[in-house]
């Protein structure tokens, strides 16, 4: 049996937060924060995959975030908000089997639990805008039942 994905995402967020603050090796951080998921192989693998993918794509994802928060200094954003946005955008871009609504709802709930009073609305606004951009530019690649949503960018078959 696997652990609820929300808990796995929270562990990933905590590991990425520890990395951001401590700059310790990610392997050590994973061993410390995520190791209790080891008994649930699927959950542990999802957490590791998510963490490594966020790290690997952080420059690209941060550029997307910066494009959405032009009136804010990026380095002044709450650290948790940045990490939650990175996870959400990473899922939108690179996890084809996760519906966009799930990624966004999970990010909102994690922001609501771990960050500031207005973080959930901030995260929701940024991720909704990113999702719209991905749809318009046809960068949203979701496959599987219930994952493709009708969008304005969908072209009729010819």
Give your account of this protein's structure.
It is built from 7 helices and no strands. It has one domain (5-136): N-utilizing Substance Protein B Homolog, Chain A, CATH 1.10.940.10. It starts with a helix and ends in a 22-residue tail after the last helix. It is 65% helix and 0% strand.
Give the structure's gist in a few sentences.
The chain is built from seven helices and no strands.
Annotate the secondary structure layout.
Elements: H1 5-22, H2 26-34, H3 41-56, H4 58-68, H5 79-94, H6 100-114, H7 119-136
Helix pairs in contact: 1-2, 1-3, 1-5, 3-5, 4-5, 5-6, 5-7, 6-7
Biggest β-sheet, characterized? none
Assigned CATH class: Mainly Alpha
Shape: globular
Indicate the proportion of strand residues. Answer: under 5%
* CATH homologous superfamily placement: NusB-like
Q: Which structural class best describes the helix and strand composition?
A: mainly alpha
How many strands in all? 0
């Amino acid at each position: 049996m696997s652990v609820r994905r929300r808990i796995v995402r929270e562990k990933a967020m905590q590991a990425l937060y520890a990395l951001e603050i401590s700059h310790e090796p990610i392997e050590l951080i994973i061993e410390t924060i995520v190791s209790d998921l080891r008994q649930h192989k699927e959950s542990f693998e999802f957490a590791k995959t998510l963490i490594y993918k966020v790290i690997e794509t952080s420059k690209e994802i941060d550029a997307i975030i910066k494009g959405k928060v032009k009136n804010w200094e990026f380095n002044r954003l709450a650290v948790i908000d940045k990490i939650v946005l990175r996870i959400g955008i990473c899922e939108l871009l690179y996890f084809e089997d996760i519906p966009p609504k799930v990624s966004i709802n999970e990010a909102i709930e994690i922001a609501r639990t771990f960050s500031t009073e207005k973080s959930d609305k901030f995260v929701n606004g940024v991720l909704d805008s990113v999702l719209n951009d991905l749809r318009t530019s046809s960068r949203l690649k979701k496959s599987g039942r219930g994952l493709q949503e009708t969008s304005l960018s969908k072209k009729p078959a010819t």
